[in-house]
Amino acid sequence: MIILVLNAGSSSLKYQIYNMSDESVLAQGRVERIGMEDSILTHEPSGKTEVRQVSEILDHNTAVKKLTDLLIDREHGVILSMKDINAVGHRVVHGGESFKHSVIVTSEVKQEIRKLIDLAPLHNPAAMMGIMAVEANLPDVSQVVVFDTAFHQSMPQETFLYPIPMVLYRRHKIRRYGFHGTSHDYVSRQAAMKLNKPLESLKMVTCHIGNGASCAAILDGKSFDTSMGLTPLEGLMMGTRSGDLDPAIVPFTMDKEELTLNEVNSMLNKHSGLQAISGFSSDMREITDAMKDGDKQAKLAFDMYTYRLRKYIGAYAAGMNGIDVLVFTAGVGENSVMVRQAVCENLSFMGIELDNERNEIRSKEVRLISTDKSRVSVLVVPTNEELIIARDTYQLVRESL
Ligand code: AMP
Question: Where is Mg(2+) annotated to bind (predicted)?
Fold first, then answer.
């Protein structure tokens, strides 16, 4: 079965096409700057030369048309005809309380995703555009939606509710939803497999730290708590997002700086985090490079980032009465030896003992980086959200045949 995975943003569309007989990636690519005159389509077919096209792509519909044309192109294509695509899987950011797992797209599902636009005004409309574009270009193909929030729907009320008037939850569904669910789900399973233990028997904290960052407490194989909330702004310090802060800072800043709500929202999402404290970058590579050159603001940004992550790990260990496994994943988690070391250094009281040599090893494999004596197993697990979307799509479509 051939499956196309789409991840639609408001002005971008990323794709991967899988042959599910061996889960190999036939091609991947992205369309950027959708809606502009100089949109860029980058197509990387496996074993063939990369293609980069600059042209006007005004909407997602045209983006899907262009990328599917390339998929069947004589020179750059990887399949013979559009009929070879058996199903399309979409990443959808917000599934609210309606979606506890991935589903096949029906008119009711589309209606429900539209209803959730209130909760994810930037993300869910883009996903809908992706779904509609596939309907227009590949009308006979089954579509599946995979939600970032679904894995966290197992959280109990005590962790998902905010201590604010209950009427806000009842009327507007204001609560913690959590994101990066496909990643937390996948890496927790991979970690249990590596340790050769049933997932249900392990108390785990998974740290998905990339551009966006969140951690999750995993108990009995299910999400028990997670650091992102109603939106992906809460929790850890991120590249450009603040993460946790005193909510009173919002009205206080609006008053003192004469800012509108939108301006403060933009400040907290786009101009905070590593970017704000370092003053020059949201990228952990540049922060750690500058630290080595003695940049004090970079060092402060790094210390705040790792301290805040360590606090969450401690909080979740308290929430679950200890942990057995700590997992690092995503861009920073998989690559930054320094971040992993700084986070773990002061967790020895919990029985975490990092093996510095193992921590230095660079590899794309799941690997243990704690010592053999460490009471908590610390692992690096490369995440693969597209593969999970492809697997869910494959399974649901097969069951429906
Ligand atoms: P992601 O969102 O998972 O793609 O992660 C992207 C982020 O990972 C980048 O913004 C970088 O900050 C970070 N990153 C990637 N490679 C490295 C590295 N070698 N060292 C530190 N951070 C890295």
Answer: 7, 385
- Examine the domain organization and report whether 318 and 243 are in the same domain: yes
Distance 267 CA to ligand 1 centre (A): 22
> Structure pTM?
0.94
Kindly report the number of other CB atoms within 10 A of residue 70's CB atom: 20
Distance CA 361, CA 358 (A): 5
Q: Give the strand order in the sheet containing 142-147.
A: 51-57, 36-45, 24-32, 13-19, 2-8, 85-92, 142-147, 103-104
Q: Has 211 been labeled as part of a binding site?
A: yes
Does residue 162 form part of some domain?
no
Give the CATH number for residue 361. Answer: 3.30.420.40
* 165 Cα: distance to centroid of ligand 1 (angstroms): 39
Task: Find the range with the poorest average confidence among 28-37, 116-125, 168-177, 332-341.
Answer: 116-125
Question: What is the overall mean pLDDT for the chain?
Answer: 96
Number of structural domains the chain divides into: 2
Residues spanned by the domain of 136:
2-147
Residue 334 annotated as part of some ligand binding site: yes
Asked if 118 is an active-site residue, the reply is no
331 within ligand 1 shell (Cβ under 6 A): yes
Q: Ligand 1 test: best mutation among 91, 285, 288, most atoms within 8 Å of CB?
A: 285
Q: Is residue 171 part of a domain?
A: no
Question: CB under 8 Å to 292, separation ≥6 — which residues?
Answer: none
Q: What would the two tokens of residue 143 be?
A: 């579509």
Identify the active-site residue in 22, 148, 355, 392: 148
